[in-house]
Write the structure tokens for this entry.
Amino acid sequence: MDDMAAILTINLSALCENWARLGSRIGKAECGAVVKADAYGLGIEHAVPALARAGCHTFFVAHVSEGIRARAVASQATIYVLNGLAQARMHDYRVHRLRPVLGSIPEVGYWRQHGHGCEPAALHVDTGMNRLGLRLEEALALLPTHRLHDLGIGLVMTHFCSSEVPDARDTAAQIASFARLKAELAASGNGAVPMSLCNSSGHFLDGIETYDLTRPGYALYGGNPTPDQSNPMRPVIRLEAPIVQIRHVPEGEAVGYNGNWIATRESRIATISCGYADGFPRNAGNNPQHEGGTAIVAGVECPFAGNVSMDLITLDITDVPQGKVKPGDFATLIGDALDIDRVAASARTNGYEILTNLGRRYRRQIVG
Ligand SMILES: *Cc1c(COP(=O)(O)O)cnc(C)c1O
């Protein structure tokens, strides 16, 4: 083993295939890509150029600083900044051709006054999340007296709160609100303004109207947009940690901090070099209250033995045949049967958090 670092492999062709697969579901609509939070932890500088080469023209980030990084690697792209209008960054919107997503009437007013020389913004209309965006009534009240084009607005969008949940009532209500908004846009002479509705899971809703532009994030990176069904996306990341040591633990002895795991038989324990300081969730620890995570060693899925430490995880490899594994071999923490949704469930979180916590300490290997 030349280093203790776990290896994070990022497969850019799988990423681009996922983007194309999502695009194939939406007819003539354009498929964008959400690359906020450093492309969900994978790295803007890798993900954005790969997607741009695959044909993606429109990117969404959360912060102006992320938009600047995306612009540096995608000179021709359209880049929206989701988290509202940052008044102190007008210069950056202009110079880096970033488009804010306006989320309140005051932001619309400020943009109208100060947005000259910028590319058109998006207008975010809230249809049920109560997080960002104009209330539907506020947006509808704006329309009869304003041309969105004259306000410097070139896209109207809303965001689902439960699109991954089959038959969610709030999803149906959001779809209906957005359809109403479309009708009112048309009636007020704003019918030419493109609209955007779907996140990843939205692409898989039965009979969904996909409007003009979609905004997938999670599914691009291999997350399952249909959690009640098998994952239609290709895995994009793989995480493998080297085994530092293998030891025998007699029946009845405890392993790890606070002795949360007790050997119920003569056991073999592999200690691997990855922990919560790498962004691997501490909540995946195996203790009497919670079953916790697993790792694949020599083709065998092995349970964690006790807590996840800062830099180490202990695995119960008793079921791996002797001679099939030695120090320096790698255990798979994410990959094969262990997709990010399963890893997330073992840590009582979601796959988005697994991705966006992927640590800086991994040796990152870009393939494809
Ligand atoms: C994060 C985000 C998305 C992407 O959602 P996924 O579930 O990751 O596909 C789309 N739109 C908005 C407004 C977002 O904040």
Observations:
- The longest strand covers residues 237-249.
